[in-house]
Design brief:
Layout (H helix, E strand, L loop, with lengths): L5 H7 L22 H11 L5 E8 L1 E2 L11 E2 L6 H18 L5 E9 L7 H11 L3 E11 L6 H10 L3 E7 L3 H7 L5 H14 L3 E8 L6 H14 L3 E6 L22 H17 L3 E2 L4 E3 L4 H7 L4 E3 L2 E3 L5 E5 L4 E3 L3 E5 L3 H9 L5 E6 L2 H16 L1 E3 L8 H13 L3 E4 L2 E4 L7 H7 L19
Parallel strand pairs: 1-4, 1-13, 2-3, 4-5, 5-6, 6-7, 7-8
Antiparallel strand pairs: 8-10, 9-10, 11-12, 14-15, 15-16, 17-19, 18-19
Length: 450
Amino acid sequence: MNVYTHSLLHKYNIPGPRYTSYPAVPHWKFSNFTQEEYFDRMQETLSSDKRVSVYIHLPFCEFLCTFCGCHKRITKNHAVELPYLETLRMEWKQYQQLFDNELRIAELHLGGGTPTFFDPTLLATFLSDLLRDRTDSCELSFEGHPNNTSDEHLRMLYNLGFRRMSLGIQSYSPSVQKAINRKQPFSTVQKVHNAARRFGYTSISHDLVYGLPFQTLDDIHDTIDKTLTLKPERIALYSYAHGPWVMGTGQRGYDEADLPSANLKRRMYEEAKERLLHVGYIETGMDHFALPTDKLALAFKAKKLHRNFMGYTTQDTAGLIGLGMSAISDMGSAYHQNEKNLEAYQEKIISNEFPTYNGHLLTSQELATRKLIMDIMCHFEGTIPDELMELYPKFEERSIGLLGDGLMELVGKKIRVTETGLPFVRNIAMVFDPYLMEIFDDIPRFSKTI
């Protein structure tokens, strides 16, 4: 196990982007954005291949998980389901109208919120209609809450072609679960996991979080040990992102004094990682692990791993369309985010408007930077493109500390993250981010990197 000194962790545990996109959302320039230009770039991106990935945001949850920073609506009123699904159907038709109904769904993911909040019959009707536009090899996946993912959900989704499921678990510690308002015993997770196996799901992921309030090293060991008795194909071991300033989170219910120290937090990850590698998992990018036969591990080995707003993916389509409240679309050279308010989103769709809230049109320099940063985040190495060579002196200057601490190598245009530098991959990517060379106000924008 790597041992990181307190001074090294303290030095680099600073706020920074997670780089699920580049530029990071706080750096988007909506003032330069127009829907017309976005649609032009979308047409250009999909001119030769109409296959798209689709992310559907299903925002409803019955309870607020206080660690969560996602856009959601807390309600026990299930009458919201049908109107929302109808709005999603209308939004997809808006996109199809732009492309003469030629778009084909090559990859679809149901996220949230809580997708399994929805009644299986209503969800089946909506998805059956939507999936008429899928390709023959379409990959389908969904996020499930162990407390409300029923056999009926699993059967219905399997029959529609879903083969991947992600279960949000976070921690099995009762005290941690109480703090984050996510109470679910291991027996509940085990029941859903084993039911998915019986139905025939071939890739199951467990989402875990380290650095949560009141979490201890023993808690992490117990959570990992329980997880390994089920041995899911993928494990996401996320670093808890503390951002109480973000509207809609419940993170004001505890403060930083209730969180593990940076040193302890990193030890949690390293000891969990050691356990996972020992039983055959492969570290695939930052905070992700997969069994060697899983597509994520194969993509990582082949240097074909991608990263977008859903995290690491094997996506090979040119564009990602986000449907639903707050969902983000990525067309390579342009981003588009839907209205984050549920009523505003639905009102625009009903009025036959695109529900634009935010967006960004990438410059040629941003495209080059995006490629470099995503290579660092996905493959732990990269090559500085010609478009960025004028910034090379600044890159060298900003790399001095990381190079001196043995966290990265910079030889000519080649960048490599060392084994010691893996925990600091976000910091390394930040070196090559021109936006972070500018001086901003003191408004908090990002969670800490470690």
